[in-house]
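Q: Is it fine to ask for two folds in a single conversation?
A: Yes, each is treated on its own. Send the first.
Q: Here.
A: Result:
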Amino acid sequence: LAAGTPGLGLIHGEVVKFDLAGRLQPDGSRYKVPQMGWNQVFQSAPAHPLWAGIVDGAYFYFVHSFYARPADARHVAGEADYGARFAAAIARNNIFATQFHPEKSADQGLALYRNFLHWKP
């Protein structure tokens, strides 16, 4: 999809497809799309309450070909890198959305769910 593709959601922005054709990762292998694997997520400051007890740079499991690009960068709650930095989590008011799969992300995913259960936005 071309840049400017609208995405259904509650935070204004766009949905972008990874454009990594012909690019190589630091280890010399080609980037694959869809990407399936573990990426570090770096929390944006100030830290969102759902990140409580989760180490900055913790690994989460991703399965994706697209990512969200919010119109307002202040809504980015966490970023990851796969050929370029992208929003791995977005937050606004009582909304917290992840690009990764918490349910497949071991202890850090369970911690995120636990934090959600106790969150009072």
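Q: Second one now.
A: Result:
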Amino acid sequence: MKRLFSSFSLMALGASALLFTLPLAAWELDPERSRVSATVMQIGPDGPIPRQHEVRRLSGSADNSGTLELPLRLNQSDVVDRLGPLPPWLAGITERPMATLTTRFPPERLDQLAVGDSLVETLTMKVQSGSAMREESLPVRFTKTGRDQVQVTNAERVALDGQALMANPTLRSVLLLLGYEQIGDEVPVSLDAMLVKTRDS
């Protein structure tokens, strides 16, 4: 009996090891189809003028719990394209994350969605920039567009605090380089991203 029990134990251990070596499905952002757009209202002598900007190539992988960490760098935005060669004191920050966004979505609910269906989840967004940490809730719409892909958009209007952006030393420097001496109180933003399911080999 003891030998039989030992055999079952070895089989269980072997099965567990096999399960852990199987490829695990994970969701990650497709950088080519993931971006955030923002409308900055430039305040000048001729009145307010809306300007469009984008942060492109959003990338990040979620763990099995759906926790996603998303670093945001200056070189992902169209700012570098518009400015051209940056001054030496600013060039070094283009690769460094200006902020890191962390959130968690329900991967099991995405798996249960049929193609063409969607759901809205209110996600908690934690944004860390330097030593400052902000936490906000954002309703997000997940739409399954294919077997292994889900489009992610904001489910309602979202706007950033323009004065808070100008109060951030790094962002203020970038905005001044772009010619923004004063901006509107609100900066509407829209999310259009694609989550794709991959399997680790």
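Q: Anything structural to flag on that second result?
A: Two points. Confidence is low (pLDDT under 50) at residues 1-24. The chain has one domain: 24-199.
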